[in-house]
Amino acid sequence: MRFGESVYSTSLNCHSQRALTNVEYGLYKYSFGRIQIRMTEKTMQVEARGHQLSSSPAAGVRVAIVGATGFAGQELVRLLARHPQARLEIATASQATSTPRRLPALKRVWDGEVRPLDIAAVSAAADVVFLALPEATSAELGPVFMDAGLRVIDLSGAFRLRDAGARGRWYAATTNFPAGIAYGLTEFERDAIRSARLIANPGCYPTAALLAVLPVARAGLLTPGSDVIVDAKSGLSGAGKAPSERTHFSENHGSVAAYGVLGHRHTPEMEQALGRGVTFVPHLVPLDRGILSTLYARVAPGTTDAQVAAAFAAAYDAAPFVRVTGGDLPEIKHVAWSNFCDVGWKLDAATGRLVIVSVIDNLIKGAAGSAIQNFNVMHGLDETAGLL
Question: Which of 27, 287, 333, 334 is the most buried (most CB within 10 A)?
Fold first, then answer.
Protein backbone atom coordinates (compact mmCIF):
# COMPACT_ATOMS: atom_id res chain seq x y z
CA MET A 1 0.00 0.00 0.00
CA ARG A 2 1.24 3.49 -0.82
CA PHE A 3 0.56 6.04 1.86
CA GLY A 4 1.37 9.31 0.14
CA GLU A 5 0.49 12.03 2.61
CA SER A 6 -1.21 9.72 5.10
CA VAL A 7 -0.11 10.02 8.70
CA TYR A 8 -1.29 6.47 9.45
CA SER A 9 0.71 3.43 8.46
CA THR A 10 -1.51 0.34 8.38
CA SER A 11 -2.05 -2.96 6.64
CA LEU A 12 -5.34 -3.83 8.33
CA ASN A 13 -8.61 -4.55 6.42
CA CYS A 14 -12.02 -3.81 8.02
CA HIS A 15 -15.49 -4.90 7.02
CA SER A 16 -15.69 -1.64 5.10
CA GLN A 17 -13.38 1.10 3.94
CA ARG A 18 -13.86 4.81 4.32
CA ALA A 19 -11.97 7.75 2.97
CA LEU A 20 -10.69 10.13 5.57
CA THR A 21 -10.32 13.74 4.60
CA ASN A 22 -7.92 16.39 5.75
CA VAL A 23 -8.88 17.60 9.20
CA GLU A 24 -7.66 20.67 11.01
CA TYR A 25 -8.53 20.60 14.70
CA GLY A 26 -7.28 23.10 17.24
CA LEU A 27 -3.50 23.31 17.07
CA TYR A 28 -3.14 20.05 15.17
CA LYS A 29 -3.38 19.24 11.49
CA TYR A 30 -3.58 15.70 10.20
CA SER A 31 -3.72 14.41 6.65
CA PHE A 32 -5.70 11.17 6.50
CA GLY A 33 -5.25 8.75 3.65
CA ARG A 34 -7.58 5.84 2.97
CA ILE A 35 -7.20 3.28 5.72
CA GLN A 36 -7.35 -0.32 4.52
CA ILE A 37 -7.63 -2.80 7.33
CA ARG A 38 -7.01 -6.52 7.07
CA MET A 39 -8.04 -8.23 10.27
CA THR A 40 -5.92 -11.29 11.00
CA GLU A 41 -7.25 -14.20 12.98
CA LYS A 42 -4.95 -13.21 15.81
CA THR A 43 -6.19 -9.65 16.09
CA MET A 44 -9.85 -10.59 15.71
CA GLN A 45 -10.17 -13.24 18.44
CA VAL A 46 -13.17 -11.65 20.12
CA GLU A 47 -15.62 -13.72 22.13
CA ALA A 48 -19.28 -12.82 22.47
CA ARG A 49 -18.66 -11.57 25.99
CA GLY A 50 -16.05 -9.09 24.74
CA HIS A 51 -12.34 -8.94 24.07
CA GLN A 52 -10.43 -12.09 24.98
CA LEU A 53 -6.97 -11.32 26.29
CA SER A 54 -4.15 -13.26 24.71
CA SER A 55 -2.10 -12.75 27.87
CA SER A 56 -3.31 -13.29 31.41
CA PRO A 57 -2.94 -10.56 34.07
CA ALA A 58 -0.50 -12.85 35.90
CA ALA A 59 1.79 -12.90 32.86
CA GLY A 60 1.28 -9.22 32.21
CA VAL A 61 -1.34 -7.65 29.97
CA ARG A 62 0.16 -6.55 26.65
CA VAL A 63 -0.24 -2.79 26.25
CA ALA A 64 0.53 -0.19 23.61
CA ILE A 65 0.67 3.60 23.78
CA VAL A 66 -0.21 5.71 20.74
CA GLY A 67 0.87 9.33 21.18
CA ALA A 68 3.78 8.57 23.52
CA THR A 69 5.72 11.80 22.94
CA GLY A 70 3.22 14.27 24.44
CA PHE A 71 3.11 15.20 28.12
CA ALA A 72 0.43 12.65 29.05
CA GLY A 73 1.92 10.05 26.69
CA GLN A 74 5.31 10.22 28.38
CA GLU A 75 3.65 9.86 31.78
CA LEU A 76 1.96 6.72 30.46
CA VAL A 77 5.32 5.34 29.37
CA ARG A 78 6.90 6.13 32.73
CA LEU A 79 4.11 4.47 34.73
CA LEU A 80 3.37 1.48 32.51
CA ALA A 81 7.06 0.57 32.14
CA ARG A 82 7.12 -0.11 35.89
CA HIS A 83 3.63 -1.60 36.19
CA PRO A 84 3.92 -5.08 37.73
CA GLN A 85 1.14 -6.58 35.60
CA ALA A 86 1.48 -4.73 32.29
CA ARG A 87 3.93 -5.35 29.47
CA LEU A 88 4.63 -2.26 27.40
CA GLU A 89 5.09 -3.87 24.00
CA ILE A 90 5.06 -0.84 21.72
CA ALA A 91 4.93 2.95 21.99
CA THR A 92 4.31 5.09 18.93
CA ALA A 93 4.10 8.72 17.97
CA SER A 94 0.86 10.18 16.67
CA GLN A 95 1.87 10.08 13.00
CA ALA A 96 3.31 7.51 10.61
CA THR A 97 5.71 10.14 9.31
CA SER A 98 7.28 10.76 12.73
CA THR A 99 10.99 10.11 13.17
CA PRO A 100 11.79 7.25 15.58
CA ARG A 101 13.08 8.64 18.86
CA ARG A 102 13.98 7.73 22.41
CA LEU A 103 12.86 9.51 25.56
CA PRO A 104 15.98 10.74 27.40
CA ALA A 105 14.10 11.55 30.60
CA LEU A 106 13.04 7.92 30.88
CA LYS A 107 16.42 6.31 30.29
CA ARG A 108 16.75 3.16 32.42
CA VAL A 109 13.04 3.34 33.16
CA TRP A 110 12.12 2.48 29.57
CA ASP A 111 14.86 2.20 26.98
CA GLY A 112 12.60 1.45 24.04
CA GLU A 113 12.14 3.58 20.96
CA VAL A 114 9.02 5.56 20.15
CA ARG A 115 8.15 4.36 16.66
CA PRO A 116 6.11 5.97 13.91
CA LEU A 117 2.42 5.09 14.15
CA ASP A 118 1.62 1.73 12.58
CA ILE A 119 -1.90 0.49 13.29
CA ALA A 120 -1.16 -3.07 12.20
CA ALA A 121 1.87 -3.33 14.47
CA VAL A 122 -0.05 -1.95 17.45
CA SER A 123 -2.99 -4.29 16.84
CA ALA A 124 -0.74 -7.34 16.61
CA ALA A 125 1.36 -6.46 19.65
CA ALA A 126 -1.21 -5.44 22.26
CA ASP A 127 -4.41 -6.38 24.03
CA VAL A 128 -5.03 -2.84 25.29
CA VAL A 129 -4.10 0.43 23.61
CA PHE A 130 -3.85 3.79 25.36
CA LEU A 131 -4.59 6.73 23.05
CA ALA A 132 -2.90 10.00 24.08
CA LEU A 133 -3.92 11.89 20.97
CA PRO A 134 -5.85 14.98 19.86
CA GLU A 135 -9.61 14.42 19.79
CA ALA A 136 -9.97 14.26 16.02
CA THR A 137 -7.34 11.56 15.77
CA SER A 138 -8.77 9.48 18.62
CA ALA A 139 -12.22 9.79 17.05
CA GLU A 140 -10.88 8.00 13.97
CA LEU A 141 -8.54 5.49 15.58
CA GLY A 142 -10.63 4.43 18.59
CA PRO A 143 -13.20 2.46 16.54
CA VAL A 144 -10.44 1.06 14.31
CA PHE A 145 -8.66 -0.50 17.28
CA MET A 146 -11.96 -1.73 18.71
CA ASP A 147 -12.70 -3.46 15.41
CA ALA A 148 -9.25 -5.06 15.62
CA GLY A 149 -10.24 -6.65 18.92
CA LEU A 150 -8.31 -4.37 21.26
CA ARG A 151 -9.72 -2.67 24.31
CA VAL A 152 -9.12 1.06 24.19
CA ILE A 153 -8.42 3.66 26.87
CA ASP A 154 -8.74 7.09 25.27
CA LEU A 155 -7.36 10.15 27.04
CA SER A 156 -8.98 12.64 24.64
CA GLY A 157 -12.49 14.06 24.82
CA ALA A 158 -13.70 12.31 21.68
CA PHE A 159 -16.00 9.81 23.40
CA ARG A 160 -16.89 11.49 26.69
CA LEU A 161 -20.26 13.01 25.79
CA ARG A 162 -23.18 10.59 25.44
CA ASP A 163 -25.61 13.04 23.86
CA ALA A 164 -25.19 13.18 20.09
CA GLY A 165 -26.17 16.85 19.91
CA ALA A 166 -23.61 17.87 22.51
CA ARG A 167 -20.97 15.73 20.81
CA GLY A 168 -21.70 17.38 17.49
CA ARG A 169 -21.16 20.80 19.01
CA TRP A 170 -18.05 20.15 21.09
CA TYR A 171 -16.38 17.17 19.35
CA ALA A 172 -17.56 17.36 15.75
CA ALA A 173 -14.95 14.85 14.57
CA THR A 174 -16.62 12.06 16.57
CA THR A 175 -19.06 10.73 13.99
CA ASN A 176 -18.75 7.08 15.08
CA PHE A 177 -19.82 6.30 18.66
CA PRO A 178 -19.63 2.49 19.04
CA ALA A 179 -21.36 0.41 21.71
CA GLY A 180 -19.32 -0.56 24.74
CA ILE A 181 -18.07 2.90 25.77
CA ALA A 182 -17.80 3.79 29.47
CA TYR A 183 -17.00 7.15 31.03
CA GLY A 184 -13.87 6.57 33.09
CA LEU A 185 -14.32 8.50 36.33
CA THR A 186 -13.06 5.49 38.25
CA GLU A 187 -14.44 6.24 41.70
CA PHE A 188 -18.01 6.36 40.38
CA GLU A 189 -17.97 4.11 37.29
CA ARG A 190 -16.18 0.90 38.30
CA ASP A 191 -18.95 -1.46 37.19
CA ALA A 192 -19.15 0.06 33.70
CA ILE A 193 -15.36 0.18 33.38
CA ARG A 194 -14.93 -3.54 34.07
CA SER A 195 -16.82 -4.58 30.95
CA ALA A 196 -16.09 -1.61 28.67
CA ARG A 197 -14.54 -1.99 25.24
CA LEU A 198 -13.51 1.67 25.19
CA ILE A 199 -12.98 3.87 28.23
CA ALA A 200 -13.37 7.61 27.72
CA ASN A 201 -10.98 8.96 30.30
CA PRO A 202 -12.32 12.13 31.95
CA GLY A 203 -10.83 15.54 31.29
CA CYS A 204 -8.44 16.97 33.84
CA TYR A 205 -10.77 19.79 34.92
CA PRO A 206 -13.84 17.52 35.20
CA THR A 207 -11.84 15.01 37.23
CA ALA A 208 -10.95 17.60 39.86
CA ALA A 209 -14.42 19.17 39.87
CA LEU A 210 -16.52 16.02 39.84
CA LEU A 211 -14.54 14.26 42.54
CA ALA A 212 -15.14 17.38 44.64
CA VAL A 213 -18.89 17.77 44.17
CA LEU A 214 -20.41 14.42 43.19
CA PRO A 215 -20.50 13.06 46.77
CA VAL A 216 -22.66 15.91 48.06
CA ALA A 217 -24.74 16.01 44.87
CA ARG A 218 -25.56 12.30 45.03
CA ALA A 219 -26.29 12.56 48.74
CA GLY A 220 -29.01 15.07 47.88
CA LEU A 221 -27.43 17.91 49.83
CA LEU A 222 -27.37 20.51 47.05
CA THR A 223 -30.26 22.91 46.61
CA PRO A 224 -32.50 21.54 43.83
CA GLY A 225 -32.02 23.33 40.53
CA SER A 226 -29.04 25.36 41.67
CA ASP A 227 -25.94 25.75 39.53
CA VAL A 228 -22.46 24.81 40.66
CA ILE A 229 -19.65 27.31 40.06
CA VAL A 230 -16.25 25.83 39.23
CA ASP A 231 -13.27 28.19 39.44
CA ALA A 232 -10.19 26.23 38.38
CA LYS A 233 -6.48 27.01 38.02
CA SER A 234 -4.26 24.80 35.88
CA GLY A 235 -0.56 24.54 35.19
CA LEU A 236 0.60 25.07 31.62
CA SER A 237 1.09 21.40 30.77
CA GLY A 238 -2.70 21.16 30.67
CA ALA A 239 -2.63 23.11 27.42
CA GLY A 240 -0.65 20.34 25.73
CA LYS A 241 2.82 20.21 24.24
CA ALA A 242 2.24 22.26 21.08
CA PRO A 243 3.61 25.77 21.72
CA SER A 244 1.43 28.85 21.43
CA GLU A 245 1.41 32.46 22.52
CA ARG A 246 -0.80 31.48 25.45
CA THR A 247 1.74 28.98 26.73
CA HIS A 248 4.86 31.04 26.01
CA PHE A 249 6.98 31.49 29.16
CA SER A 250 7.20 35.26 28.90
CA GLU A 251 3.42 35.51 28.47
CA ASN A 252 2.65 33.44 31.57
CA HIS A 253 5.44 34.08 34.03
CA GLY A 254 4.14 36.33 36.80
CA SER A 255 0.60 36.30 35.43
CA VAL A 256 -2.75 34.51 35.80
CA ALA A 257 -5.33 34.57 33.01
CA ALA A 258 -8.89 33.31 32.61
CA TYR A 259 -9.77 31.67 29.30
CA GLY A 260 -12.60 29.75 27.69
CA VAL A 261 -15.15 31.55 29.90
CA LEU A 262 -18.68 30.24 29.21
CA GLY A 263 -17.31 28.35 26.22
CA HIS A 264 -15.05 25.55 27.47
CA ARG A 265 -15.76 22.03 26.24
CA HIS A 266 -15.28 20.54 29.70
CA THR A 267 -18.48 22.28 30.86
CA PRO A 268 -20.91 19.83 29.20
CA GLU A 269 -18.85 16.94 30.57
CA MET A 270 -19.38 18.21 34.11
CA GLU A 271 -23.06 18.92 33.48
CA GLN A 272 -23.56 15.43 32.08
CA ALA A 273 -22.24 13.86 35.29
CA LEU A 274 -24.02 16.25 37.66
CA GLY A 275 -27.34 16.60 35.90
CA ARG A 276 -27.40 20.34 36.62
CA GLY A 277 -25.94 23.57 35.28
CA VAL A 278 -22.26 24.41 35.76
CA THR A 279 -20.61 27.80 35.47
CA PHE A 280 -17.00 26.98 34.68
CA VAL A 281 -14.12 29.47 34.60
CA PRO A 282 -10.66 27.98 33.96
CA HIS A 283 -7.41 29.88 34.46
CA LEU A 284 -3.81 29.32 33.40
CA VAL A 285 -1.23 29.84 36.14
CA PRO A 286 2.58 29.79 35.82
CA LEU A 287 3.09 26.22 37.08
CA ASP A 288 4.21 23.27 35.02
CA ARG A 289 1.62 20.85 36.46
CA GLY A 290 -1.33 20.71 38.82
CA ILE A 291 -4.96 21.85 39.09
CA LEU A 292 -6.68 23.56 42.00
CA SER A 293 -10.45 23.77 41.68
CA THR A 294 -12.63 25.85 43.99
CA LEU A 295 -16.32 25.01 43.75
CA TYR A 296 -19.17 27.13 45.08
CA ALA A 297 -22.56 25.53 45.75
CA ARG A 298 -25.73 26.02 47.75
CA VAL A 299 -26.89 23.30 50.10
CA ALA A 300 -30.40 22.64 51.36
CA PRO A 301 -31.48 24.53 54.50
CA GLY A 302 -30.44 22.77 57.67
CA THR A 303 -27.51 20.93 56.11
CA THR A 304 -24.74 20.37 58.67
CA ASP A 305 -21.02 19.91 58.38
CA ALA A 306 -21.46 16.38 59.70
CA GLN A 307 -23.74 15.57 56.77
CA VAL A 308 -21.19 16.88 54.30
CA ALA A 309 -18.46 14.83 55.99
CA ALA A 310 -20.68 11.74 55.90
CA ALA A 311 -21.26 12.20 52.16
CA PHE A 312 -17.54 12.30 51.46
CA ALA A 313 -16.86 9.36 53.76
CA ALA A 314 -19.52 7.26 52.04
CA ALA A 315 -18.05 8.05 48.64
CA TYR A 316 -14.36 7.72 49.42
CA ASP A 317 -13.65 5.60 52.51
CA ALA A 318 -12.76 2.72 50.17
CA ALA A 319 -11.25 4.89 47.41
CA PRO A 320 -7.45 4.54 47.45
CA PHE A 321 -6.71 7.74 45.53
CA VAL A 322 -9.06 10.29 47.09
CA ARG A 323 -7.90 11.81 50.35
CA VAL A 324 -10.54 13.77 52.23
CA THR A 325 -8.99 16.62 54.22
CA GLY A 326 -12.11 18.16 55.74
CA GLY A 327 -11.53 21.72 56.88
CA ASP A 328 -7.82 21.59 56.08
CA LEU A 329 -7.93 22.82 52.51
CA PRO A 330 -5.49 21.06 50.15
CA GLU A 331 -2.72 22.48 47.97
CA ILE A 332 -1.32 21.46 44.60
CA LYS A 333 2.10 20.59 46.05
CA HIS A 334 0.45 17.89 48.17
CA VAL A 335 -0.51 15.87 45.09
CA ALA A 336 2.11 16.76 42.46
CA TRP A 337 3.58 13.69 40.69
CA SER A 338 0.91 11.44 42.26
CA ASN A 339 -2.47 9.92 41.38
CA PHE A 340 -4.12 11.40 44.46
CA CYS A 341 -7.00 13.84 44.55
CA ASP A 342 -7.23 15.75 47.82
CA VAL A 343 -10.60 17.30 48.72
CA GLY A 344 -11.54 19.68 51.53
CA TRP A 345 -14.43 22.04 52.21
CA LYS A 346 -15.87 24.85 54.29
CA LEU A 347 -19.59 25.16 55.04
CA ASP A 348 -21.44 28.27 56.19
CA ALA A 349 -24.50 26.54 57.61
CA ALA A 350 -26.29 29.83 58.30
CA THR A 351 -26.31 30.87 54.65
CA GLY A 352 -26.13 27.43 53.01
CA ARG A 353 -22.91 28.27 51.18
CA LEU A 354 -20.60 25.33 50.56
CA VAL A 355 -17.07 25.86 49.23
CA ILE A 356 -15.13 22.77 48.14
CA VAL A 357 -11.46 22.75 47.14
CA SER A 358 -9.86 19.88 45.24
CA VAL A 359 -6.36 19.43 43.86
CA ILE A 360 -4.86 16.96 41.39
CA ASP A 361 -1.80 16.54 39.22
CA ASN A 362 -3.32 17.20 35.79
CA LEU A 363 -0.93 14.83 34.00
CA ILE A 364 -1.41 11.91 36.41
CA LYS A 365 -4.79 11.86 38.16
CA GLY A 366 -6.04 14.14 35.38
CA ALA A 367 -4.71 11.92 32.57
CA ALA A 368 -2.19 9.05 32.62
CA GLY A 369 -2.67 7.93 36.22
CA SER A 370 -6.44 7.71 36.03
CA ALA A 371 -6.12 5.88 32.72
CA ILE A 372 -3.95 3.25 34.42
CA GLN A 373 -6.34 3.14 37.37
CA ASN A 374 -9.08 2.33 34.85
CA PHE A 375 -6.82 -0.27 33.23
CA ASN A 376 -6.44 -1.94 36.63
CA VAL A 377 -10.18 -2.02 37.24
CA MET A 378 -10.81 -3.27 33.69
CA HIS A 379 -8.59 -6.29 34.32
CA GLY A 380 -9.54 -7.07 37.92
CA LEU A 381 -6.16 -5.95 39.25
CA ASP A 382 -5.36 -4.12 42.45
CA GLU A 383 -6.56 -0.59 41.71
CA THR A 384 -3.29 0.87 42.96
CA ALA A 385 -1.02 -1.33 40.81
CA GLY A 386 1.70 0.73 39.17
CA LEU A 387 0.52 3.90 40.86
CA LEU A 388 1.81 3.71 44.45
Answer: 287
